[in-house]
Amino acid sequence: MSMIRDLRAVVRPSLRGKNSPTVYTNYDATRDHSVSSAVVDCAVYRDGRRMKECATPHEAMVRVRESGGFAWIGLHEPTEAEFAGIAAEFGLHPLAVEDAVHAHQRPKLERYDDTLFTVFKTIHYVEHAELTATSEVVETGEVMCFTGRDFVITVRHGGQGSLRALRHRLQDDPELLAKGPSAVLHSIADHVVDGYIAVASAVQDDIDEVEIDVFSAPTKGSPRGVDAGRIYQLKREVLEFKRAVAPLLRPMQQLSERPMRLIDPDIQKYFRDVADHLARVHEEVVGFDELLNSILQANLAQATVAQNEDMRKITSWAAIVAVPTMICGVYGMNFDYMPELHWKYGYGIVLGGIAVVCLTIHRLLKRNGWL
User: Fold this and answer.
1) pLDDT digit string (tens) for 117-128?
2) How many whole angstroms separate alpha carbon 305 and alpha carbon 310?
3) What is d(CA 361, CA 7) in angstroms, rounded to the nearest whole number?
4) Averaged over 52-63, what is the pLDDT?
5) Second label for 353, Cα 20 to 30 Å away, from 177, 208, 260, 370?
6) What pTM value is reported for the model?
């Protein structure tokens, strides 16, 4: 919160016309040295082309003010001290700065004066040889994007979701990059949603595997049924996926439908395509959640049926064992006058009678499906 109080004291950029250059005040040059460790890339783009390398964000904005174009500054997990200089340089709102530094935010779109602050959740599929009750299926990260008239600042959290390849791809398309910061924002949104599509396909394979295991007949020597922990763990990972996708629907709808001064009208059309892909992924993730509920219920029902089958078998064998137990119990009593006690063939007849009765009960139980 100390940084927030410092930022509130920073003099805001002066009011300017729509096409006038950005003016930044109260810049402290010593802060550029402290932020260098968090900056992963810093460049100025003019007419879709990358200009000469810039050592610091301040140098980048000086070139923008002198020659036009826009600056794109990429940071990775900056601290409060590292981000304070950039926040003062670009006049970023303290609340947005606090969210960007501390991360763990819901996907959202907020407007502060002449700056758009967008939060994206990145999703990465974690490869695993076998799905277990402790397998990590998806790994999340965050990308925050500050979009102004002549600058883009991206703040990335987590080990995944690097924007280096995206930056190079944009640099290979000068016509698109010439549209300015809104083109970068669209490309980031499209890149994140494309990642969702790839992860959804991989998660679908995991769900199919679990579904086949649940409904396939057990083979001899293999454990019966599927560990419910596997299904529950997969459901938890899908829920994490859902928390990244669902809140982003409204921001993408706003960017694709609501006119905004900072979004080029030509670029806004492309946001509609991103919003459509996002809606499709959201439907898939909701379907995953419902399907896993059904699979979990089916697995629990199968476990209940299996328990009932085991109880029937135990009961059947207990009924068969009860016959010799009863007969032997009778002949085990100490009476002087036992019936047929001194028969020459009494022992064999009793054993034969026990065998016949037990076999008859076994056949009846097996015919009724109890054994």
Assistant:
1) 999 999 999 988
2) 9
3) 87
4) 84
5) 370
6) 0.76
